[in-house]
Design a protein that fits this description.
heterodimer, A: 726 residues, alpha/beta, N-terminal domain of TfIIb, Dimethylsulfoxide Reductase, domain 2, 4 domains, 7-stranded mixed beta sheet, 29 strands, 17% strand, B: FAD/NAD(P)-binding domain, Enolase-like, domain 1, 5-stranded parallel beta sheet, 26% helix
Chain lengths: 726, 534
């Protein structure tokens, strides 16, 4: 047992433990040539400078910033290619005689508005649905939620972040009372000597993040739980750290086994548990039954390895060298994802990590605005400021900002997969508007989802490129992309960032803010939908005031002056909150909660017909469904074609060799991929990246079993077999 | 109309009995179909017996061994009777007689009876171990504890406060765990084991020899091939001690008996059930009498009497399926047993058939012996399937091997990888391999997909430093961890192509929290350049 002091700190939440100070200049540059903005892609939001005045001559250079420390990956370096790709949409398209044909904005918007009015008149307001995306700016995410509830007055709105952060978010709220991906600046991790990553592969998904793991890796304290020896796991092993090569879907058992070891071998911080948490007494009996040797049989991670991982975290904690537990999609994208993250939070709590300087628990947010996008109302059960839509006080506050009667606000709607599954069914939506998402490729059990989408009366897609979803739409509206727009995003550490315009809109492209304003006016809401993102942000500030994600003291002026502002940022706490929970957790009693959860395993067991477990993930060169990055030649060339990664013995058993085409078959569909052999794969696992469409669509296989709390689908484990392609 | 719930009476509140009650409730959460009563002899709520050696070792308290939080059973409508024994059962009338600790008797009617009476510790009738006449229920002498119950673990902990010496009777799993715990409490421990090596049921001769060294290495005395013939309490200034079969004496303020267990079958015998070593059950956990079932350590299924918890839990699940009709065709096919010693400094796993000669024609046997470092690995394969293994001090491989053993999947063809639990050759970081021998297509900078060829090309075009290579190729500009490799490549190229400027200007790569520790690669023969750039 440790006797580390866990006494509460003073209310100075901006105080920084000196050893946790990260490098880099936190301020935004002023007066330098070029436009200072952030990357088009992931949640790390690397800082970059754009130089040039046309799409053809625009260049990208990395910019020093605490999160990326002057680094960019290949996606970031080549992001300007998206501005000049021939695949860029520049004019509205309307389907006529089966073909998407150019149209004027008035023609296209009239088609959409007429259909909305007609559909709602015939089938009710919920017959029109909206699907958003985690890449939308805060202003757009906010305005989309408002457009749905105030203009369309539909409850049917959700977004692709449901398939990304929802399990971690639900577990964070459950255990800490609040969900902010990293409740501390990402640079804090850089000083840590022990970091346990759970289903995270930042070496490929957000490469510059690795700069924050160098110290842990060099100290032999980088530990990675992943079914594959990913580049991140290899980095851990090369530095003397650990790879916990678990069977997909057994993450919760791993967490419980590590908790068991922490307690029985004396690594628990009993004083912290007594002073800062609740519920351990009811939690422990579950972990007590997960004897390490039982966990070993379930996960395939040896007791020795689990013990070493727990000891490394405890040692770093005891010597004040920094210890962090970080989860990501690998452990979260399961039908038991919320419970799994809850169990890993419990591990961090047993060790006394969260809410203390230099230690902690966090989740690594994936999408570009995956944090801000999950706070301001594009989620089915949510209102701006991370408020609950079924909370009367929240409804009253937001309705007042919006100038509507609280009773006119719809209630909670369907979650993402449930929404898409209901399309075109009795009582389900008949018209869908998609913004910043490509569900034909990214949805679980995508073949079934594509069928539902095809059954719509009208599909409207706003996008930059003709994504696979846009290609089947009835109306396609060309919108702005990152270097063409102003706005804010909130990065993985809850810091609000400015996105700045370097180029004018190409062709006829318009901002979604203009699209919604025009549509709202056409269906009878002539006010309330400003098109200037700065004006929208001012309203977002007021709408979020008093909510958990409170932006009320964040202004564009302050951001433009280079201030580093992490929410909550309020008049009472104008400097923001880089580190949450130092004094108390956001629960009613200020204590973090142990919630008893058990391991249940994947919803679909392997059997004689489908003897392998397929898991999905990313490659470095592609982002999300690949709709954008597949258009960048350099990225496409480097990434190659769709592949399946597997052990040579597994390939042998299926009669296929390196480079052969093979069909990976599940109960729901098949995916064709070329064989990529890897000696380090588990023999019972195959890995498929999910960036390709058509025959190579990995989500044709995935299982849409949903988490009971977060409604996260089971992306990361489904039963498959291999069939050689003759 | 609500049908009367069927009454399930579980005799025994140990890990199997309690688990059965839990499993039945999972299938009947509202208790509308089944009324469940669990009777336990011990005065405590059901606890996790496996954790008792951890209690002795000091990691947790007896309270931490509770299987469920307080109030859990009542909240789930499970009637738990503690401190009472079922002393008689009439299988024809389907009633049982309960006797409380104070001798009060009452009867309870049942529709289904489940025997989960477990085992009792076997204490040999050696002189001085019992307080009076030796016998199954006889009390033990002061200073002697049989290690079985949570109260036993409390007694051991209490005795260890004052004891400076202890003798553990039995060098099996439990004996070794008890010894480890007592050592942790500063007690001088001697383990007396009648066989030639400890854990003889789970090991072979070579593995046993290595374990002997390991046990002695952690500070325990280990006496092999002998029995304790008598125990004498402290008397007339002579300290308490035991006498061994060779006549020598060993100081023993405390004697912990871990000499095996005996299934508790007295009730079953009295009921007239078919009892062999334990209560005989079929694949549906049914005994020879209708509506009477048995699970856990008091049962004997296909000749096997469980000695670990996993079979009892598996049986509880199957029996709950059968009793509730959740899966009326459920059958119990046996549990593959895996033994793992719980002692943080002895990493030992044993599974399946292990006593097979390396040259046995019917098996493929792999072995690795490293007695000095306390390591021993033996894998027994049959037709490419793992049928047995001993893993001592080589725990890294245990995870992969236990899963291969459990699933019966074909083992990797690479037998060395199999023993190590991982591939022998794997792609290592570029800065740790010889850059000269690396093919030109090898990716040096993963973040920007920059190959060795690209860097060589940039160098020849004038980029002779990390910064210049970064400028030309973007190598090192992502996470920065390939900086050492690029630096090494530049050094190599400079020496291989004299005339290049040795300058190394300021870096334009991402900040690194710690200095780069990778050293440049060895300087190769220039010939390699051609291959590398190809």
């Amino acid at each position: 047992m440790t006797t580390r002091t866990t006494a509460g700190r003073t209310a100075d939440t901006t105080a920084v433990p000196t050893r946790a100070l990260g490098g880099g200049n936190p301020s935004e540059p002023q007066g330098q040539p070029g436009v200072a903005t952030h990357c088009a892609y992931c949640g790390l939001q690397c800082a970059m400078t754009l130089t040039g005045s046309t799409a053809q001559d625009l260049t990208v250079a990395p910019r020093r910033f605490p999160t990326n420390r002057g680094g960019l990956c290949q996606k970031g370096w080549t992001s300007a290619e998206l501005l000049r790709t021939p695949g860029r949409l520049t004019t509205p398209l309307v389907r006529r005689d089966g073909e998407l044909s150019p149209a004027s904005w008035d023609q296209a918007l009239d088609v959409v508005a007429d259909a909305i009015v007609r559909t709602q008149a015939a089938y009710g307001r919920d017959a029109v649905a909206v699907f958003g995306g985690g890449g939308l700016t805060n202003e757009k995410a906010y305005q989309l939620g408002k457009f749905a509830r105030v203009a369309l007055r539909t409850s049917q709105i959700d977004y692709n972040g449901r398939w990304c952060m929802s399990s971690a978010a639900a577990a964070g709220i459950r255990c800490f009372g609040l969900d902010r991906g990293l409740p501390f600046p990402v640079t804090d991790i850089g000083s840590a000597h022990a970091v346990l990553l759970l289903g995270a592969n930042p070496a490929e998904t957000m490469p510059p993040f690795l700069t924050h793991l160098v110290r842990a890796a060099d100290a032999g304290g980088l530990m990675v739980a992943d079914p594959r020896l990913t580049p991140t796991a290899a980095k851990a092993v090369d530095g003397g750290g650990l790879h916990l090569q678990l069977r997909p879907g057994t993450d919760a058992a791993l967490a419980l086994g590590m908790i068991h070891l922490a307690v029985t071998e004396g690594y628990a911080d009993r004083r912290y548990v007594a002073e800062r948490t609740s519920g351990f007494d009811d939690f422990w009996p579950v972990a007590a039954q997960w004897l390490p040797e039982r966990v070993e049989r379930v996960t395939g991670v040896s007791v020795t390895t689990m013990r070493a991982a727990v000891a490394a975290l405890a040692r770093a904690r005891d010597t004040e060298r920094g210890a962090y537990v970080l989860s990501a999609r690998g452990s979260e994208q399961h039908a038991s994802g919320t419970d799994t993250v809850t169990a890993f939070i419990a591990l961090a709590l047993v060790l006394g990590l969260p809410g203390n300087p230099g230690t902690g628990f966090g989740t690594i947010t994936g999408q570009g605005n995956g944090q801000g996008g999950r706070e301001h109302g594009q989620k089915a059960d949510q209102l701006p400021g991370y408020r609950k839509i079924d909370d009367p006080a929240a409804r009253a506050h937001v309705a007042a900002v919006w100038g509507v009667d609280p009773d006119d606000l719809p209630g909670p709607g369907r979650s993402a997969f449930e929404l898409l599954s209901a399309l075109g069914t009795d009582g389900g939506p008949r018209l869908l508007m998609v913004h910043g998402s490509n569900p034909v490729v990214s949805a679980p059990d995508a073949r079934a989802v594509a069928e539902r989408i095809a059954s719509l009366d009208l599909l409207v897609v706003c996008d930059l490129v003709l994504s696979e979803t846009a290609a089947v739409a009835d109306v396609v509206l060309p919108v702005l992309q990152w270097a063409e727009e102003e706005g804010t995003l909130t990065n993985l550490e809850g810091r609000v960032l400015r996105r700045r315009r370097a180029l004018a809109a190409p062709g006829l492209c318009r901002s979604e803010l203009e699209v919604w304003s025009e549509l709202a006016a056409r269906i009878g809401c002539s006010t309330g939908f400003p098109t200037d993102p700065r004006v929208v942000f001012e309203e977002l500030r007021r709408a979020s005031a008093g909510g958990p994600a409170d932006y009320s003291a964040v202004t564009w002026e302050r951001l433009d002056a280079g201030e580093s502002l992490h929410w909550p940022c309020t008049p009472e706490r104008p400097q923001g909150t880089p580190r949450l929970f130092l004094d108390a957790f956001a629960t009613p009693d200020g204590r973090a909660r142990f919630v008893p959860v058990d391991h249940v395993g994947p919803a679909e067991a392997d059997d004689a017909d489908y003897p392998l477990v397929a898991t999905t993930g990313r490659v470095l060169q592609h982002y999300q469904s690949g709709a954008q990055t597949r258009l960048v030649d350099e990225l496409s060339a480097a990434a190659g074609d769709m592949f399946v990664q597997l052990h040579p013995d597994t390939a042998d058993a299926a009669g296929v060799a390196e480079g052969d085409l093979v069909d990976v078959v599940s109960r729901r569909g098949r995916t064709r991929a070329s064989v990529r052999l890897d000696d380090d794969m588990r023999g019972d696992v195959v890995f498929l990246p999910f960036h390709w469409a058509g025959d190579g669509r990995a989500n044709s296989l995935t299982h849409a079993a949903l988490d009971p709390t977060s409604r996260m689908p089971e992306f990361k484990a489904c039963a498959v077999r291999l069939e050689a392609v003759s | 109309m609500t049908p009367t719930p069927r009454r399930v009476l579980v005799v025994g509140n140990g890990m199997a009995g309690a688990r059965l009650a839990e499993e039945v409730r999972l299938r009947d959460p509202e208790a509308t179909r089944f009324a469940v009563t669990v009777v336990g002899e011990e005065p405590h709520a059901a606890y996790n017996r496996v954790l008792l050696s951890t209690v002795v070792a000091g990691g947790i308290t007896p309270r931490d061994t509770r299987l469920k939080p307080d109030g859990w059973w009542a909240a789930r409508h499970v009637d738990v009777v503690t401190g009472a024994r079922v002393t008689a059962v009439d299988p024809a009338a389907r009633v049982a007689t309960l006797t409380d600790a104070d001798g009060t008797e009452r009867t309870i009617a049942w529709d289904e009876l489940v025997l989960a009476t477990g085992s009792t510790a076997f204490v040999p009738p050696t002189e001085g171990l019992y307080a009076g006449t030796p016998g199954p229920d006889a009390s033990l002498a002061e200073g002697v504890v049989a290690f079985r119950t949570v109260d036993d673990s409390s007694r051991i902990v209490e005795a260890a406060e004052s004891a400076s010496t202890a003798v553990v009777l039995g060098g099996g799993l439990l004996g070794l765990e008890a010894a480890r715990g007592l050592l942790a409490r500063g007690v001088e421990v001697t383990i007396v084991h009648p066989q030639d090596f400890p854990m003889d049921r789970q090991l072979d001769v070579d593995g046993g020899a290595v374990l002997t060294r390991v046990v002695r290495g952690i500070g325990a005395r280990l006496v092999l091939g002998q029995l304790v013939t008598a125990r004498h309490p402290a008397r007339d200034g002579e300290p308490a001690h035991v006498v061994l079969s060779d006549g020598s004496a060993v100081a023993a303020d405390l004697v912990v008996v871990a000499a095996g267990v005996r299934p508790r079958t007295d009730l079953a015998v009295a009921m007239g059930l078919d009892v062999d070593r334990a209560v005989v059950v079929d694949d549906r956990l049914a005994t020879s009498v209708p509506h009477v079932h048995a699970i856990g350590e008091c049962s004997q299924h296909r000749g096997e009497v469980p000695g670990l918890v996993q079979p009892g839990w598996d049986q509880a699940r199957v029996l709950a399926d059968v009793l509730t009709g959740a899966d009326a065709d459920a059958t119990y096919e046996g549990t593959s047993v895996l033994t793992r010693l719980k002692a943080h400094d002895i990493d030992l796993a044993s599974m399946g058939t292990v006593d097979v000669d390396v040259h046995d024609p019917g098996h493929e046997v792999l072995a690795f012996t490293d007695p000095v470092r306390g390591r021993y690995a033996k894998l027994v394969l049959r037709q490419d399937r793992l049928v047995g293994a001993i893993l001592l001090g080589v725990g890294d491989a245990a995870g992969a091997l236990t899963q291969l053993y459990d699933t019966g999947a074909a083992v990797p063809r690479d037998r060395l990888a199999l023993m190590l639990g991982r591939a022998v050759t794997r792609s290592t970081a570029p800065d740790t391999v010889n850059l000269a021998e690396m093919p030109g297509s090898a990716v040096i900078c993963r973040c920007n997909t920059v190959t060795k060829s690209a860097i060589v090309g940039a160098f020849r075009a004038g980029a002779d430093s990390v910064a210049a290579v970064a400028e030309a190729t973007r190598a090192t500009t992502g996470c920065g961890s390939c900086k050492g490799a690029v630096d090494g490549l530049c050094s190599w190229l400079r020496s291989a192509e004299p005339g290049s400027a040795p300058a190394e200007p300021a870096q334009s790569t991402p900040d690194q929290s710690t200095p780069d520790q990778s050293s440049p690669a060895p300087v190769p023969a220039p010939a390699a350049l051609t291959e590398g750039a190809a």
